[in-house]
Each structure stands twice: as structure tokens, then as C-alpha cells.
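request received
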Amino acid sequence: MIPHSFDYAAATSFADALEQVAAGAKPLSGGMSLIPMMKLRLAAPERVVDLGRIQGLNYIHQDQAGIHVGALATHFEVETSALLRAGCPLLSETAGWIGDVQIRNRGTIGGSVAHADPSADYPAALVALDARIVVASKRGGERTVGANDFFVDALTTAAEPDELVKEIIVPVETMGTSYQKLLQPASGFAIVGVAARIGQDGHGRLGVTGLGARPILITDATDLAALNTTEANSDIHAASAYRREMAKVYARRAIAAARARA
Ligand SMILES: Cc1cc2nc3c(=O)[nH]c(=O)nc-3n(C[C@H](O)[C@H](O)[C@H](O)COP(=O)(O)OP(=O)(O)OC[C@H]3O[C@@H](n4cnc5c(N)ncnc54)[C@H](O)[C@@H]3O)c2cc1C
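response:
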């Protein structure tokens, strides 16, 4: 399939990208979700601004606020970062589950959280981690949104069209963590995926992807009732009843694995 014709410009800096987005351009990062949507004509932007050549926006560094991951960090960079593996292993582990090696080499964390696919992996980890997402615009400067408020609905976030995801801030981990995923074998997307952060006493938080339109946060891992009552997705890959059952199975697995690491 061939997309509608569009104008293309490569941003020279983050400020330039904000300028272009404010003027109506659609941001392009790894292109692993936007390009397929354009080819399927589910998206038809008239102008695209490529963020991919902005130098340095793939940083991963730590300060007293936590570990900062720049929007252009690829899934591979998140997966293999020594800092994240030591300080926030849940995020690295989750990145390693995304798609295949080509997708992980091109796709970015900023593009994934902005896209907010109901079957994406990062949202489960980010709500479990109580991560913060920093968005920026020419109009309003920077603001920080908690992950559980950021993911609003399927393909819908709290970011405005003129805002760009700038970075994701995750805490330095003090608990045991694990991401467990039942994947759709052709694409690798999650039928369900569960991110767990659990202490030695078995208490902790879960983030669940694939089950609903947006990630589900469970703040008491000893009570999985929310997985029964929630309105579960149903599609050609899995019926809602199956997704609900699998969410419970994978939640128990994630809790056990995380507790063993606590
Ligand atoms: C075959 C295949 C398998 C996949 N499997 C998985 C999987 O198992 N798990 C998973 O989670 N994902 C999977 N993906 C999706 C993949 O992770 C994408 O990389 C990700 O969803 C989008 O990241 P991107 O950098 O490619 O963004 P793009 O495709 O460039 O952009 C995606 C959307 O975000 C917007 N955007 C991009 N960057 C920003 C920014 N900084 N600020 C604001 N808006 C922005 C774009 O305008 C667009 O709407 C798969 C994709 C494919 C094609």
C-alpha cells in the first residue's frame, strides 16, 4: 500500500521540531507504527517532521529524580542500557519483549508511549513503575504527566497535538520486578502482558497491557479482582474471556517471578 503524498522535513533540533509540530506537522520517530498506519491510510498527515536526526535525544542518565530516558532512545538501547538493567530492570526487560530485532533497532520509547497502542508493552511497565512522562510544546514549555494519567484510551494520550514526548523518568528500583507476556506470534504484540513490582512480603503493584483500551494499574497485587470485572478487548487474536483468564495467569507468573527477585 502507498500512503497519501505528504511533505517531509527533518527537524534540526528539538526546538525546531516543537516549532514544526506547532505549525501542524505530524512527528515521526522510528516510523514503526506511523508508517504502517500511513500505508494503510489510517493516518494521512499532510506534513511530517522527522525527529530521528535530533542529536542526543536518546540519552539515558540518572540524577536524584530517577533515570531519565530520552524520547529517541530505541527499544534496543533501553533493553541493553547498563544503567537501566541495574537501576530499573523492569523497563529493560519489557523493551526486550517488543516485536523483533528490526523493530527494536528502529522503534523508540517516545514513539511507543505517544502511540499508546492497547497491546504495547511499555505502558504496562510505566504504570507499574509510576513513571513520569515529560511533554513539551512551543506554547507551554514542559509539563510532567504521571503514566497512569498519560494513557487515556486506545491510541489516545494526555499529550496535545502540539506537544512532543521529550523524556520518560523512571524510579531507581527497590523492589523485585518482572514482565510476563503472552504474545501474538506473528507480530509479537501482547495479547496480555503483566509488569509486576513486588516486595518480599508479596505486596506491590501491577501494570497490565492488552486487556483494556488503556493499561490497567493494580495497586494491590494481592487482589486481582480488577482483572475479572474490567471490560476486556476482543479481536481476531483473542476473545475477551480468554484475555481475562490469561491476564490472571500472567499476573500470577509475574508476581511469583518478581517476588523471587525481591
Ligand atoms: C511488526 C511490528 C511488531 C511490533 N511489535 C510490538 C510489540 O511486540 N510491542 C510493542 O510495544 N510494540 C510493537 N510494535 C510497535 C513498535 O514498538 C513501535 O516502535 C512503536 O509503537 C512506535 O515507535 P516509533 O518510534 O516507531 O514511532 P513512530 O511510528 O514514528 O510514531 C508513532 C506515533 O507517535 C507519534 N510520535 C512519535 N514520536 C513522538 C514524540 N516524541 N512525541 C509525540 N508524538 C510522537 C507519531 O506521530 C505517531 O503518531 C511493533 C511494530 C511492528 C511494525
